[in-house]
Amino acid sequence: MKFFLSFVAVLVAILLYIRFVPSAPINPVLPVEQGQEEVNGHNSEVPKGSGEEEEAGEENHSSTSIAPVAPGQTYGAAISPDGALPMTALNTALGARDSAQVKLVGKASAVCQAKGCWMTLPTADGKEMRVRFKDYGFFVPKDLSGHDVVVSGWAYRSTVPKSELQHYAKDAGKSEKEVAAITQDEQQLTFMADGVRVVN
Description:
20% of the residues lie in helices and 26% in strands. By secondary structure, the chain is an alpha+beta fold. Strand 5 and strand 6 form a beta hairpin. The longest helix has 19 residues. The protein starts with a helix and ends with a strand. This is DUF4920 domain-containing protein.
């Protein structure tokens, strides 16, 4: 009987602790400032690196916490170039599946000029695959375009809404006319990277 009463007392204590002691949510929803439109977390608060990113206007953010482009430099999770497939092998790696975990090597062709929060890699069919960064936990330098990089993560097929395509076009520095010319959703290959490594 004593054992049972002790067990009940411990259980009640644990339940009271859980109920009344505040704890941080496991996956908090971050606030979006009033008047801002959130596009895939683009405008949400991003964890700051040791350099503490400071805002310099709504679309102009400093990137002091982002290490400069250099061969071997990694952003996000540390990854090795070993076993990376060329972009031309992506369709084979995906096959008929909607997604696949892969490591790819290709030449960065465009980078978000607002924060460095996405980049694109050309595919074998001449289109662009947008590479986003897991949980917006890291950025890449805005001058990464033209460098060969290795990305590790998930490639997947998705339908990108027109509004998101327009948002990306603005980030890339396209003119208002070019942004307005985007009038339809688009089927695209997208990549969610947990790490990026500069090859050269």
